[in-house]
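Handout, section 4.2: multi-component inputs.
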Amino acid sequence: MSLLLPRVAHSISCFVVVTAVLLVGCGPSINRYALIEQSLLAGNPAQAAAIVEQTEKEYGTKSRVLYAMDRGLTLQLAGDYPQSAMVLEQAEEAVERLYTRTIRSETAAVLTNDNALPYEGDAYEHVMLNVVNALNYAVQGDVEEALVEARRIDHRLNVLSDQVKESSGYRNDGFARYLSGILYEAAGDLNNAFVAYRNAYQAYEAARGWSQIFPPPSLRADILCMAEALGLTTELDDYQNQFPDVVWGPASARRQLAQVVMISYNGRAPRKEDHFIDLPVSLDALQLLLLNYREMDSVLDELSGRVVRVALPRLISQKTQISFSTMTLIDAQGNPFTVRSEPAHNLTALAEKSLDDRMPAITAKALARAAIKFALSEGVVIGAQLAVGRKNASWVGLLVRILANGLAKGSEEADKRSWQTLPDEIHVARAWVPAGRYQLAIQPSGQRVSIERGEQVLDLVPGQTAFILQRVMQ
Amino acid sequence: MTQTYRRSLSALVCAVLILVGCGHELKVTRVDSDLVMDLSGRWNDTDSRVVAEAMVKDALQYPWLGNFSQARGRQPVVIVGTVVNSSHEHISVQTFMTDLERELTNSQKVTFVAGKGERDEVRTERKEQAVYASEETQKGPGKETGADYMMKGAIATILDEVDGTKVIFYQVDLQMIDLENNTKVWYGQKKIKKVVEKKRIVF
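Output:
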């Protein structure tokens, strides 16, 4: 007995240390998102940015990209565009570096959960990095630098379309293309604007089945306008036949006017939560599970090693209540110019599509992980039993099994990380107005009070494109 | 023997796992500013310097310079205009333009005048001198040297990427334009091609 306890303690302590070390840094805190959302709801984006910064350590070393995504977006909402651009640039560089995976991280993920892997972000989040950053430059009036992001979007989507073979997959991005077109047009590059608008239309059409977004009517007008400006008569006839109801004006008329583009981030991106599934490891356990399922039995089964638990991520959508916003520009004489926003991007649908596409791989990995954990815990039990000898094998085996299975269960957690500071939807409103001074007012639908922009005055010159960002949490 | 082996193995596994996540110490090394260091494959200080040197050298070799000096009996006056960034990167165009200005000035073959941004500051200074400086030291208006030529251009990139291998093709186009009649007296082009390869998995 004197030799027994040290041996048992050694086996158990080694397993505990191994698991504890691997668990370090796992499990992202979600409280910060509640605080960020509260700040944004209260109309205090600077506080939201500060919360992200203060909780940097909570994100951990494995979620540096996620931290930069959240920080970049909240800084943008707080109006610190240069800092936001810098942080998002860093995020993009970090994503590029994460192309190279380490065996060390992959092994840790197999033994614990996917939170042990550095967060890379989904493909649509990578595109959003460039979209958000393009808006950082566009809002500052730096169209040349915004176009750098538009070119990156094009490159990123080209690479993506090479990688994703399924025509129904996320291999193009209507909104990112649409924004690129607006930027090219703002820079006077009508040829690239036409190409981007046309690609945007094709991307919207290709994703209609799952994105729940139709090509915005203004995009159709843009295609017609650019085709006319470039003298592309065949394309113009073709698109006129496709869009017989679209009202549009020639590009020459647009050049005499100034444009105001409002980009509205509406609602909250979906969050992820754990979806636990108990799987029997023997036919007896399956019978017990099917015929006599009770919570306590399940717990006992897990502890006794007859059932393993896998955790899969599940999306919880947080849909916006805003169906449109009204942007009003009031000129010096008090004449109002009013336009209504159009839905242009559905990020919840994108997140769902992305998770659906990855779910088979996530499930297979989770099952493999459960099998490895089961095998490891069985190995530890056998090792402990051998170490203590036949006399004490049964109670030591039971003790170690309970501990090992408890640790295996405790370490099982789905990767719930996602760029949660993104909106649910992005709406776009575009107004062409004569040059001059305008007072801006924006009213989201369903809200009686228009958003305070009393101090925001726009001085517009012919040919200018001014970008306005708007965040509505509802 | 088996127990010793087991214990050693266990200790080794624990030690390796505990070491997981240990970061590198901060290390700072001073290097020569001319040393070529390609880290990410993006446009860097070396590209800016090398392109500026090569293109200015190329520009000054062509006959427009000799023709002008012969006809007017003086060095041509050059100003650097806009260099448009049409690339996939947020290139510091200002750094590149400074490199161009330095090479042009140091060539001693052309007279170089301040660009648009610098001119505003100098003019403000002259206006203030008119108020605050003594008459003997004041610099009056209307004595600026007008440029004969403007150098302007663009930096563009073409990217191709598959399976972690990226080919970046930079093309820098510069033109020397006669400000009197808009004729282009020189057209220079410099190309840089980089291949960036990333491994999919490492230890």
